[in-house]
Every structure is written in structure tokens, then in C-alpha cells.
Amino acid sequence: MKKMIAALALLSTAALAQAPQFSTDRLTQDIRTLSSDAFEGRGPATPGEQKTIAYISEGMAAAGLQPAGDVEGGKRSWYQKVPLLRTSISDADPKLVLTVAGKAMPMTQGEQIAVRAPLTGQKHVNVNNAPLVFVGYGVTAPERKWDDFKGLDVKGKMLVVLVNDPDFETGNGDFGGKAMTYYGRWTYKYEEAARRGAAGVLIVHETDPASYGWNTVKNSNTNTMFDIVRKHPKASHTPVEAWIQRDQAVAIFKASGLDFEAEKKRAQTRGFKPVPLKASFSADYRVDAEVITSHNVAGILPGAQRPDEIVVYSGHWDHLGVGQPDARGDRIYNGAVDNATGIAQMLELARTFAKGPRPQRSILFLAVGAEEKGLLGSEYYASNPLYPLAKTVGVINMDGGSIAGPTRNFTISGSAKLGLLDDLTRLAAARNRVYSPDPNPEAGGFYRSDHFPFAKRGVPAISFDGGNNLVEGGVARGEELSKAYTRDRYHQPADEWSPDWNLAGMTADLELLHALGSELANRRAWPNWSTDSEFRATRDKTAAQRR
User: Which helix (H) or strand (E) holds 220?
Assistant: First the structure.
């Protein structure tokens, strides 16, 4: 083992001495172009998508990659078709009424409430005075001996639920403390409600446990919605999926003779029981629903010796498109950091690898779509892989990029333990950078990036983050800038390119990610999850295919 570690250290040193050069000018050009108003926020199934995927495929071709998408006419194309259900609320002012203690209170979409267009396939939503019931965090977790429903029949009811996990506030308990489990994700809460036949879900928004403010909730949920095409969509979605402002929840609880904070504390205990509220919810609006086709973009650099073994660099090309105007009247959600930076980094890596010695294994550059709609492009690829997942060495996902200069550290989304992270930590150490655990594990970042659909199918996968310990300003400055971005620009029209960006940190990240990909593509070893990982058993089932 010591000899292996020493050999790897020598390889790391040699790779560092021959580090490729990355161009901030090319990165800037790609980011500025993809996040310009001309691309209309890169919404799936819009003219912005067509411009985006054409730009990426042309960039891949110019870099020297080969098409790696669907086979058409006996040849690979640049694109993988991704069929999606697209829905939107067609009424300008959907009827949304909360009746509290007998008093009808009309609600305005985007203000007190954010209702998603239904993903059940229905063309009309009509809910008439569905009773509200508070079900805590809406969790059923037998392995943790946790059940927020306690046998209650919730068919036809509106569930009021809290976001995140029961132990988010206390920092300790049955759900991993501050680190969010999948039970804390809003997607899980919708799914559990659908399994139980509820009429809908009202998630109570609070900034800290959600990890983002109301503007993000509003902008992400009141525009066009997408989902993969399902045989039984009502098994996964309720007719009404919505968030409400905390003040609304407090008022409902007060009218029901309850204290919101006290009930929240009860919900953090295993003995919690559902609480009927003296309120009901009505909704009436029409829906446009149709199946459309979006696309992933795929280019490959074939391996010289083992081309059937695949290393993947991934990132999502989409953003929110055109939506509700901000205070300036801007309706284009440009998505410069999220995720024009990731696609620019992918193209720059493709150029660098294609110019260098041909790797032993193939390297796939995968730009996935509809990430902002629920990781749908990556979910579709992982369900319908262009290349077998059993022989996919690992996935390195790039979602966001370093725009404030070099850092002394790096991190990944979540706290997963796997060989890829060990490799990355070793390579970073040779560059005087250290691994820092995810500073915000309560945000559930592990479940919010495109590596997750691969991870849950056993493929070693990480989503890279350039770190927060800035060379100029330290952690304090890094955290200050991160919080400002989340508050003022994340999922808002203000996420635009700026000439003030310092991309020296991005080029340093690319050099590190290139070194990792180069090692994976030029050695015979297969990284894996730690022995106690929930993904290890799934990966091990396909071990025979990697001998």
C-alpha cells in the first residue's frame, strides 16, 4: 500500500509539472455568450435551448470531440433526446383561496403562495375546501422508527409540512444532525404525499432550513414545470404542490388555537401526531400540458486502449428561461454562475484533453438539460445511458464556478465517502489545497446536483465546488460572497456575467479537475464508495463487468 501511495504521489508531482494551461479569455467568452439575453435564460424546449445546444455541440466539435449522443442513421449524433412532460398554469390569476376559521382569504400567486403547475398530466385543477392537516415534516422512515402520519388517512386532504429534517434546528437526532437527508428534500415530501393520496402539499417556507429565500421559491415554482414522462404520474405527484410563506402558516395555526413554534418543536419528536387545522384550501385553474423533447449534449474523446471504459465530466446547460420580472423589470434569468460557468469549464477541459496525449479510457463530456426542473436530464441519462453505467469509471460534475479568485480549499456537495474524493484530496494537496467538508450540509446539496442520479445507481460521482477559503479574504470573505449570491442573484435575473469576476480560481480548479480526470482515464483501477456507503452495494452488484 505504501508503494502504491508513493507511486501515486510521484504521478501527481509529474502531472503538476506538466499542468495544462487554461484560458480565462475562452472561459469568459463562453460564459458571456451562454448567459447573454440572446439565449433567453436557456429554458428547456425554447428557442434558447436550440441556441444553447447548438453552441455546445459546435464547441465540442471545434475542440476535437466526436458525437456521442443517440444513434441516427447508423451514426452517433451530438444529442440525446429527453422526452419531458411540460406544464404551465394558463390562467393569469389562478384562483387560490385559503379559508381560515370560516373566513375566506384569497391568495396571490408568487406572494403568499407559490403553486407549481401540476405534473399529474391533468388539464384542470379544481380543489374545493380540502381540509388542512399539519403532518410535521411529512416523513415516513421505518429504519429510523419515524412516522409523522401515525396511520392517518390523508386522502383528499391538504398537508401542511415543514421543510428539511426533524433535527435541523437541534443539530442532533435521528436524521444526521445539520446534514440534510433525502427525507428533508421538498421532492421527497411531495412524493410521500402522492403515495398517500393527498390532494396537495403546502410546504412552509423558512429561509434557514430551506437554505434560500422566498424569491428563489417564487421564481423556481411559478413558471413552467417539467418532469420525466411517467406511466403513472399521480403516484409521484399530487394535484397541488406548493409553498406558503411562514407568516401564512403562523396565522393558520393561531386561528386553530395553536402556536406555530410549539407545534414545530413537537414535530421534532418521534411521538408527534398529525394535527387537524381549522382551515381549508380551494384552487381552480386551467393547465397547459404536453409532452415535449429536450436534449442532452454528448461529446466523447475515445480511449486509445480501453474505449469501453468511460470517465464523465458533466454539467447542466439549462437555467430558468424567461419568467416573472424582478424589481428592475428584468424577466430573463441568465444563469451566468448557474450554470454557464460549468459548461464553459467543460468545454475548456474538452479542448485541453483533445490537444493532449490520447487517454487510455474514453472521456465523455455530458451537458445535461432540465437540471433546474429536478435533475431531469441527468435522471434520463442515468435511466437510459448512452454508455453502460457498469463501465462508467466515475462522474465529475461541475455546477457553478469560482468567480472570486483562487482558494486554499475545495469541497464537494454533501458528505459522501468515496475513492474519487480521496483521489481529489491527494491531488489537491500537491497544489497546496485542502478538502473542507460541505459548509452547508443542511442545504441538501448532495441531492440537488446532477451527480446524484448516477450516485444512486452506484456510479462513483461527485459535484465539485471550488471552496470558500479565498486566498484574498479568507473564509470570512468567501462566506460573505456566497451568502450575497444566494440572497441577491441565485435563481434571479441578477445572475449575470460581470467584468469584475476573477477567474484565476476557475483556472486553478480546472487544473485540479483535469488532473483527476487524467488519472482516472489512464489507470486500470476503479474507484468505489466507502464500505458503509448506501451506494456501495449497488455498485458491487456490477463488479464482474469491470474485471
Answer: helix 214-221
